[in-house]
Amino acid sequence: MSLLRLVVDPGGSLLKGFYTLDPFKPELILMEPDVTTVPLESLENYEQTKIGESNPENSAWIEYQNKCQAVGFLARKRFNADLQLQKRKFELALPKVLAMVGAIADKYELENGTAIHLGILLPWGEYQDRVLFQELVTTALSNYKFKGREKTFSLELFLCLPEGGGIFSRGIAPGSNLKEKSFAVVMLGYRDASILLIDRGEMSKGKTDPLGFSKMVESVKSQTSGLNLDELTSAICKSGKNASHKALGELALNVDPVYREYETSRIRNAVATCKEEYWMMLSNWLKLQVPRDVDEVIISGGTAHYFQSQLNNLFSFSNINWCEILETQLMNNFPQAVSKSLNYRLTDVYGLFFFLCAKGIRQNSDVVGAGATNG
Question: Which parts of the chain have pLDDT scores under 70?
């Protein structure tokens, strides 16, 4: 029987995962983060009338406890799903995990009964829900449907870390004396900003607030008109730190040419104003959360790289670690992630992947060792 090792970061801008089957060969899986409830009849009609065949992660829907949900690309493009950023991550993490496992199972024709080692990242504020989530996902994996087909899997190992935990477990430079130093892990994503404080090898404190990049994007949207949130987010990121006129001008291509230059300038001004306001909010929060006596500040996340120069100045009182070790490994092993500028958004879940695999190996060794002793 196969073993599936899978780690998931149920992010607000992208659902990210790494997995491997035996033999060990890490693979990357990415899905849109959207989830929406859909009537079974609508999903059956979709299956009957669609033309062509997409990858299972792009046509994913699950049925569990008499409720059907489309996940990822299907939810976004066919059923106009909302990101539901106001919900807690762990509430939406269940259908996301079921869909991701189902997609991998279909792609590799995994048998029902396959064992799973699962790792997941949750914000510090939801980390206390990890026991409840383990119970929910264990039960759900044992009996659900993916695209109308029965799926039953056995969750043999579950690992949950707070956001930033994957980076800390794998992103520290070799030779660092963890038990003698203090660290602050700063994770800045699309939905949340998270801080982990580690003192002499142990996590001592954490904090999560909804201060992710989405707050800035929503502010820009409120000061402009007729812009799609996803397209606006993409254009702002593409425009870079200097708000490129060309990149933001793509948002005004459907505007009458007479007004196009005016509309582009309006968007650029909104981006500049909202960026300044957002950084003021974010930097004030970071100043309150990160002690000035920490030995090292570890920084990651897409939002962090957007504000890299500002963060270097803000934390100039400490050593700063931009997770170059994990990023280099990602660039070497997953060039497709680099081509999409995802390498700095994947470091946390990539670190968790190796932590999960190591934990599974240790667990298996313990079982084998106990068996040998008993024999």
Answer: 1, 85, 170-176, 338-341, 364-375
Contacts of 189 (CB under 8 A, 6+ apart): 11, 12, 13, 163, 212, 213, 301, 302, 303, 345
Q: Would you call the peptide bond into 95 cis, given omega within 30 degrees of 0 as the criterion?
A: no
The CA–CA distances, whole Å, from 238 to 232, 246, 248, 317, 341 equal 10, 10, 8, 31, 10
Return the SS3 of 157.
strand
Cα 255 to Cα 181: distance, rounded to the nearest angstrom: 56
**Residue-level pLDDT at 373:** 45
DSSP state of 129: G
Rounded to the nearest 10°, the torsion over CA 360, 364, 370, 371 is 160
Angle, CA 267 vertex, CA 264 and CA 272 arms, to 5°: 125
Residue 139: how many CB atoms within 10 A of its CB?
14
Residues contacting residue 68 through CB under 8 Å, at least 6 positions apart? 37, 38, 39, 40, 43, 61, 62
pTM for the whole thing?
A: 0.89
Q: How many CA atoms lie within 13 A of 29 on its CB side?
A: 30
pLDDT score of 130: 94
Q: What gap in Å lies between CA 341 and CA 215, rounded to an integer? A: 21
Give the 3-state secondary structure of residue 121.
Answer: strand
What pLDDT shows up at residue 48? 93
Separation in Å, CA 48 to CA 52, 148, 306: 11, 12, 44
Write down the pLDDT at residue 259: 79
